[in-house]
Amino acid sequence: MRIDVLGVGFDNVTMEEAIDRGMELLHSQGCHYVVTPNPEIVEVCRENPAACRAVNGADLVLPDGVGVIKGARMLGTPLKEKTPGIEFAAGLMERMAREGMSLYLLGAKPGVAKMAGEKLAQAHPGLRIAGTHDGYFHEDAPVVEEIRQSGADAVFVCLGAPKQELWMEKNGPATGARLLCGLGGSLDIFSGTTERAPKFWSDHGLEWLYRLCREPRRIGRMMKLPLFLVHVKQEKRRR
Known about the structure:
Elements: E1 3-5, E2 8-10, H1 15-26, E3 32-35, H2 39-47, H3 49-56, E4 60-61, H4 66-74, H5 85-98, E5 102-107, H6 112-123, E6 128-133, H7 140-150, E7 154-158, H8 163-175, E8 179-182, H9 186-191, H10 199-203, H11 207-214, H12 219-222, H13 224-238
Parallel strand pairs: 3-4, 3-8, 5-6, 5-7, 7-8
Antiparallel strand pairs: 1-2
């Protein structure tokens, strides 16, 4: 049973359980996809029914960020722990590498996915990079066909929310991959183009503040966090 936070149902799992589930999906027939909503994406889902459908239709919905954890606790339905998408991806790749599985990287600016692929192949011996494509494309069909031809077991879809969730919902089965994961700006971090918040900041739930200090232009997006908490308080009173 999922934990409802403002209309988005989150799977109540630890990181290890999430990775176990990801591997189960990789070994299952058919196509599956994983999403990693943070408070900003939850707010998008409140306003966008199509995005909400795509997020809730995922086979695994992981809370990316302390805001969702706090919101669930305020509503009296606590989640076990935050499961950041980038850490889930790292754990999944480690397991995939042991089995010689293949991964396709989709998203980011031209050249970034290729750079990320080279670094990930070095970091995870045994992991095969089936191919890469930047996120600057206008037609889905050629990209979908390229992924299908690559024979990738999994695809990291890093197109930003809600585009990546809608893309996976629409195109997932046609790619031939068994698992797609929506991971936002992860390719920038995997490539070294962007630094992730240091451990102290992430351990104290301050990754958002670190990113804001580094990129002040994100202030508009960051304002969704207090709005999310306002909506959680309203929902708590309603319940």
